[in-house]
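2024-03-11 09:14:02 DEBUG pipeline.ingest accepted 1 chain
2024-03-11 09:14:02 DEBUG pipeline.ingest length=154
2024-03-11 09:14:03 DEBUG pipeline.predict start
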Amino acid sequence: MRYAYVLPLALLLSCASTEQPTSETPAVSQPMAVNRAFDVPALLGMNADQIARPLISQTIRPDHDRTPRELATGATEALYTYWRDTTALVVSYNPGTLRVNNFFIKTKHGLTADYATLLKLANVSQYDKRISVEPIASISNPQLYTGVKLVPKQ
């Protein structure tokens, strides 16, 4: 009994001495394949109501904001937002004529370091002559992007 107080200490020291430091090598991850969420080039030339027909389905949830807003240029706009999983396509249009002003693609994750991923989600090439691509940088961190504004050329 006189060594009873030493037994827990010996057990603790024996466990500590058998631990070996692990060396972790960083796993090389393959770039994820990005599947398109929306086909923006197929929507070119359609008005706001025509765009809704092919987009509304079981996998795409619409969110309509029909409240017209006055822009700094004097024009008015309203928004349709379509969600597929975590990706949103915001369609800005003139509520009087239903003419589409622009598209904005963004994700629920917020910021991304490479806006090319957002272009892939919209099925848009930055070299497409029908669309003007405008990456929108974050105000708090200009190295990251909040989304990409896609303006149809007339």
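2024-03-11 09:14:41 DEBUG pipeline.report The first strand starts at residue 60 and ends at 70.
2024-03-11 09:14:41 DEBUG pipeline.predict end
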